[in-house]
């Protein structure tokens, strides 16, 4: 499946007056797939055929990413992205779902978990979460190791750096988060850049990356959602990831009760791209076990 195929197979909905791209395919129980920063739902394309054989998979491009709108004057936040996901599920008639999340999407999933717990305590309705599978991401901000370029984007120099981004600079900064033997080809890197840069997306990177501060601000809420989760969780981790690799898995084991962690040796920040079969084996075992 090419990137053009992925786009042609999608649809659009609206969030706060802006166009949101999503893929929906398969039947049966719902599976919400939430992508990471700075890419898009295309990240799931290598595992997608297996996912849609088992589930009704729904994968949005969050606002500011991929084929969705990228408004310049917009307050991007994890809370708003969680609103987007809930709104999309409601519009598609989904009342309960499993979640598969990666990177930035992990944090969105943590907020969705926190909301689910609050609704259960109050006896309210809403979308029921049946289980969550996380891939590499900054679940615990105290051990998240932001790359130098991420730190610059998050600094007062961020707007200037965003204006200077081009494909060469992007590839040079992006490639090291992958495993040493599983880095993208030149063609794959071009696809990633196309998603990031579409409609001036690279120019808002300094706004999107404010999630780093949000993770610190809402740390107790989002880590608490993991520690007190009433549904099964699994963390699938590529330990070669310099941002949220083996050190994040260690912290997960320390803080999450009955921690369920799967390590994919030799893999970096994008397990679903680098080792799709390993990810699918870990997911199948999780779901076959009742999650």
Detailed description of the structure:
With 291 residues, the protein is of the alpha/beta class. The chain is built from 14 helices and eight strands. It has helices at residues 3-8, 48-54, 78-91, 104-122, 148-153, 158-164, 167-174, 186-197, 205-208, 211-217, 219-227, 246-255, 271-274, 276-288, and strands spanning 11-15, 18-25, 30-34, 56-60, 96-101, 128-134, 232-237, 261-263. Strands 1-2-4-3-5-6-7-8 form an eight-stranded mixed beta sheet, sandwiched between helices. Helix 3 packs across helix 4 and helix 4 (104-122) packs across helix 11. The radius of gyration is 17 Å and the shape is globular. The mean pLDDT is 96.
Question: What pattern of helices and strands is seen along the backbone?
Answer: HEEEHEHEHEHHHHHHHEHEHH
What characterizes the major β-sheet?
Answer: 8 strands, mixed
Which word captures the global form?
globular
Work out the helix count: 14
Structural class: alpha/beta
* Overall residue-averaged pLDDT value: 96
Cα distance spanning the termini:
29 Å
Poorly predicted spans: none
Radius of gyration: 17 Å
| Widest sheet, order of strands | 1-2-4-3-5-6-7-8
Helix content: 40-55%
Residues in β-strands, percent: 15-25%
Overall strand count? 8
